[in-house]
User: Fold this.
Amino acid sequence: MCALIATASIGVAPAHDVGGTIAPDAGANVVASVNGVAITTAALEKAVSASGRRDSLALRHELKQKLIARELLRQAATKALRVSVPGTDSAVPNPDLKPCSAHEIGSYLREVVHPAAVTEADIRLRYAQLLRERAAATARPAATLPGLPALEGRLRERLEAERFDQAVRQLAERLMNEAQIDE
Assistant:
């Protein structure tokens, strides 16, 4: 699960993953360039196939944006692994540094993304929302939904995951605004 946190957060599986980078095939068409790194047609095709959804221009656009976001997160994680030069204020790439893997991207995200904590009030609010949804869908809502104490842990985990995913999406959007992206 941790190894795929970066890709799960933006909703796309690793596409044509080679050491954490999206690598172009020889002679492959490029659908986008992210700070000089190519995202190929093959990577997009693989993402479309893995989505399990009906192919459409809208789906391709959505998945291309997610591949761009994934590449930006990979680049940010790689940049964070730069080492400082003693006695200077500069950082230089570590010559032994390989492109970030999905696990390293996940570690980077856990270090830099800090969503708001889930409170008891948040859990009660989500539980009340579930009760309302159940009441609208069934004639006997209370009989089919466990009590709050039984669901509290799962509700907390779900809310924490939702907040983390939202924070990752916000980071990816910020990186997109700062990046050189050619489509």
